[in-house]
Structures are given as C-alpha cells and as structure tokens.
Amino acid sequence: MNVRQNMLYYVYILLNETGTRTYTGVSNNVNERLKEHNAGRVSSSRPYRPYKIIHMESFPTLQEARQKEKFYKSTTGRRRLRELFFKVNVQRI
Asked: Can you tell me the distance from the alpha carbon of 5 to that of 18, in angstroms, rounded to the nearest whole number?
C-alpha cells in the first residue's frame, strides 16, 4: 500500500496572541508546522508570534487543500473567515 494514498492535507488558519494577525497555510502535519511558526522559522509570520490554531480543514489531496487556501486568501474567502471569527467570538460571550 502506498503511504501517500492515506495522507491528509490540512488548510490551517493561525491567529496571533494579540488577535491582530492571521496566517493561512497548508500542511500535512499542522502541529509541527505550528511549532515552526512559533519558533520563528517562517519569515512571514515571525514578527507576529506566538500563534494558535483557530481553524483547520482536511483534504485528501494537496491540490484540493491548495485550492481552499487560495480561496481563503481571496477577498471573498477573507470575508467568509471574518464571518466565522465573528460567530466564534459571539459564542464565547
């Protein structure tokens, strides 16, 4: 059996501690990727650490995950994420 056939890919969204920055990415190991972000090994997110995972979706192929990542980075996708974040904040009150 090919190991790659069983591998899932994840689109993840991180939020920094102050709640001012998000980062959207794709990985097959989100926990390790989060460690890389928080250790400063990702240059684009380094100045805004630490981060926590606020959203994650799994996909059977890298191509599908990349498509969703591209959507979340679009204007429509960012709007959708704001709607999701607002609902999360309302539920916390």
From this structure: 38
Whole-model pTM: value is: 0.84
CA distance 90 to 62: 33
Instruction: Please determine, for residue 90, whether its predicted confidence score (pLDDT) is greater than 50.
Output: no
Does CATH number 1.25.40 belong to domain 3-92? no
- Whether 14 contacts 34, CB under 8 Å: yes
State the amino acid at position 13 in one-letter form.
Answer: I
pLDDT-derived band at 1, boundaries 50, 70, 90: very low
* Angle (CA) 16 47 82, round 5°: 35
**23 within 8 A of 37, measured Cβ to Cβ:** yes
